[in-house]
Amino acid sequence: MNPVGTVAVVAQVVLACAGAPWLAGLMRQVRARLEGRVGAGPGQPWRDLRKLLHKQPVTATGTGPAFRAAPLVVVATAVVAAALVPLVSTRTPVSGDADLIVVVALLALGTVSLALAGLDTGTAFGGMGASREMTVAALVEPTLLMSVFALSIPADSTNLAAIVTGAVHDPARLATPTGLLAAVALVAVTLAETGRLPVDNPSTHLELTMIHEAMVLEYSGPDLALIELGAQLRLTVLLGLLASLFTPWGIATGTGAAALVLALVVVTVKVALLGALLAAAEVFLAKIRLFRVPELLAGSFLLALLAVAASYFLTGE
Amino acid sequence: MNAIAPALAAASGLAAAGSAAGLVSPERLRPALVGVCTAGVGAAGLAAGGAALGGQRWSASLPDLLPLAGVHLALDALSGLFTAVSGGVIVVAAVYGIGYSRQGPAGRGVQAVLPLFAWTLVMVPAGAAVSTFLLLWELMAASSLLLVVAEHRKRAAVREAGVWYAVMTHLGLVCLLIALVLFAARAGGETFPALRAASDTLSPAVRGTVFVLALAGFGSKADMVPLHAWLPRAYPEAPSHVSALMSAAMANLGAYGLIRTAFDLLGGGPRWWGLLAVALGAVTAVYGIVQAAVATDLKCLLAYSTSENLGLVLIGIGAALLFDAGGNCALAALALVAALLHVVNHAAFKALLFGAAGSVVRATGTRDLDALGGLRPRMPVTTALFAVGALGAIALPPGNGFISEWLLLQSLIHGLAAPGVATAVMLPVAIAAIALSAGLAAAAFVKALGVGFFARPRSAAAARAHESPPTMLAGAGLSAAACVALALVPGVLADGLGRAAAAAGLRGAGPTGGAGAAGGGPIGGGELRLRLTELSGRLAPLWIAAALVAAVAAVLLLVRALARGPRRTGAPLWACGAGAPTARMEYTATSFAEPLQRVFDDVLAPEQDVDVTPVRESAYLVERVRYQHRVPDRIEHRLYQPLLRLLARAGRAGRRLADGSVHRYLGYGFTTLVAVLLALVVTR
Q1: How far apart are CA A233 and CA A290, in angstroms?
Q2: ipTM of model over 0.90
Q3: Nearest in space to B325 (alpha carbons), one of B277, B289, B359
Q4: Alpha carbon of B31 to those of B37, B87, B90, B359, B475: distances in Å?
Q5: Closest CA–CA distance from residue A34 to any residue of chain B (Å)
Q6: Residue B200: strand, helix, or coil
Q7: Which pLDDT belongs to residue B519?
Q8: Do B149 and B41 form a contact (C-beta atoms < 8 A)?
Q9: Could B573 and A59 be called an inter-chain contact, meaning their C-beta atoms sit closer than 8 Å?
Q10: pTM for this model (two decimals)
Q11: Is A51 near chain B, with CB under 8 Å?
């Protein structure tokens, strides 16, 4: 049991939870500046959360435990995933169990619980959002596991710590066709999973197009605060995962305390940069039709399949 | 002292007693008596299978019981696993059936056949000779057929389902008969040890034929596409506890037969066996779950989900064959163990889901998800039970299905080391198929739970629903407990599964011996974790569940502490200011599945029919619009219907041959005899 590892887990969970609203604020701010607006500043999501926490919780009539539990489950799954992903250190008490498939499945569990909550309300919007969300989630799954497969080939394991450690010690494997194709596929999947453009527009409330927002329409007050935090946390964890997998430099692989502090700073910078890049890219994108989303996902699946094929044929076995 | 023999004897005795009770006891007592005896059969099967999994072996030869062949029985760890799974499912279904039969299939015939069917489910894995095995197999098929048509007086669809099931199961039997008889004839003996000993001396062509025919025969029982046509009819139309037995126990025996034949008796084979099995498994998994995702009939959805899960098992078996052919025994054992664990998990959650679905059908009189809804406040326990089962079925943590799919993925991901370009192409495809089926399973079960149980009732029948009697809840509760146990501490099964894989001829450790692994199996179960002994990878399902619970509690406490607002209150749903939303505004199962149906348009080929009737005076004024939409089983549509039409035409043409003239019939016989003699003269 190394105390530094324990500290690392606690630090990255706290950092993810505290930083997630800042990340969302930063992305909105970048977007606002690029669109020529002043923006509300990166602290706005935090102020929104505080405001929502001070409101009266309201439960829609006729809803049951699924509706009440969903915000908690969304945040809880994202928190557990944040603890498992090696954001700052690969030597933590949980790194042995930090399986990439488990992380992916945990985030999917949050999606499922939100979809159930959407159906539990029994409104047309809830059902619509749940139906669309599950459609996208179902189609994302093959790409996701194919990328996992591609990434796990060089490390011969799906353990996240093993993959990241291997990449730190052998950075060349990131620049192979396998690594690059898997990165592109995983980025596309991240966009779909977190409901960003071009799959879903997080800032729209237009009935005909919304996916995520339709499911959570009945939430208000502290419940809505949790839903918002959960969505931001998922984005942070997935961006952190991308950062750890494809730019693993700076992550502590030893047990030193100094490396840990450095890693915390580095991961903050990396995730903030990724978020800013994503926000900048979103300015130039329009949301695509729901029934074009499968084409996007099929494309990213093809890339992931190519990644696996490349790793087989290029290693010359 | 060997516990297997007395347990199997007890199962036989209890089955006989149950059948007798079904025949002679008064109607009031009948379900309880039969249920208790059947549950006893299941418990005895569980005990026998458990003992075999624990390492005991038993075999018996009763030469006088049947003329000519005699009866040969044996139980090793592999058959013990399936006997135990059958036993467990039987206990659940029998307890559930006590309450279920009270107001339903309580007739003499049905109640007398039920214990017999249960007994065959326990005994089929114990058959250790071709004749014994096939006899038990056919007894199982025939008794299940009688149970499927139990409610044939109530619905016409039951009769049709019965005919489909009878024909398909007997076509499967014909395949098995040819395969095993061919094998026995070439091997010069019909007991399994004799077949095992002679398998190496057979020519590759004979071995290949035996494998393909066995795959077809056992695959038709294990819901393999394209031989699945009977299942969307038979499972929904059977009484629900029979559906549970068929889906969670009988379908497994198809997998058992395939494992027994391919690994144990034939001793593995060339690479194309594995590739064929993986390909068929992938197609079955995806096709089954796509159909489940768009199904609106609750039991039909569960039936197709069975097809999906058995497809995953088939992928595991195929991968094991593939790795075994490549000489990677450790990986093969891991794939087989994953398949076996998935059999166990699927049995647990599917028995539960069919039980809960049966309660819904009993309470509302409909299986149509579009007419259900609002069951949560009316049937809270059933809803909770269904939710536990659905969590297992969607393969996400902390459900039990996740663990076996994780193992299966691990075996495939590490399998790229196996040689061959075909392998390198097939493994990613198999992984994609597993992933897609997992994603679609989530959609299908979110639909089943969210539309079927949550929100407001969509019909008067659903609004009148009430909770089921305690025996039904107890039966389903038993399988829910099994699901939870399998989800949290799957490690306890690790040794048994390792033994089962070893009994199939796959030792987890290679010839040099993998040191340190308990029992030498491919997965270790100690310290509340699952570890792959030969590869790097471990899973801690208990810790994941505990972490989730702790995180939920922490978030809840934190929000309670930070929230400053007044106490929680209720408010009406938002309906865009149009007053209270009615049930017709709710999303239905059809509308929920519509995007998926559009995405898989080319696979499903749905049929739409719009029928506009204008008023007589003007073509522009519409009097009535009839809209019909259905998603037919495309394989049945494209493969079976033309075949059936052809057969019908041949039958009509053949009628001309039989005009009633005795002379002509004698002429046929004479011509045939001469033709056969000529053929013999020419070929010899």
Answers
A1: 24
A2: yes
A3: B277
A4: 10, 19, 15, 16, 14
A5: 34
A6: helix
A7: 45
A8: no
A9: no
A10: 0.94
A11: no
